[in-house]
Design brief:
alpha+beta, three-stranded antiparallel β-sheet, 6 strands, about 30% strand
């Protein structure tokens, strides 16, 4: 069972699980809710990509994923689009890695959920 506890006290908002506590809000050092949402997409996508790569016996390279997106102006202000910019820092078989990215996009549950309301794109850069 998934469980998250959120606490709302004046000027102190926290999200808590058995593993961690995170502050959110509008002050310096805090995350906005959509920061957490895009971060959830990135981390779910990464772990799905990790699983795809390891199950296919490919190396998991160091990488950076930057997720951008924009919300609609009309209510409800769901995401209109998201874009994942993936930079790979290690040597990999590029063709295999790109195939793994496509599979991760297909099997990542958060990606699948967001894709119901938003256009989703990604781009991979090899350095």
């Amino acid at each position: 069972m998934l469980k998250v506890k959120t606490t709302y006290a004046p000027h102190n908002f926290t999200l808590e699980t058995d593993r961690a506590i995170l502050k959110f809000g509008s002050k310096e050092g805090e995350f906005f809710p959509y920061d957490l949402f895009l971060g959830s997409l990135s981390s779910c996508f990464y772990y799905t990509l990790y699983d795809v790569l390891t199950k296919s016996k490919n190396e998991v390279p160091s990488m950076e994923i930057i997720v951008t997106g924009d919300k609609r102006t009309e209510a409800p202000t769901t995401l209109e689009w998201t874009h994942m910019d993936i930079t790979v820092f290690d040597e990999v078989d590029q063709k295999r890695f790109l195939r793994a990215v496509e599979l991760a996009a297909k099997y990542c549950s958060i990606h699948a959920t967001i894709s119901k309301v938003a256009k989703m794109t990604h781009e991979v850069h090899f350095q």
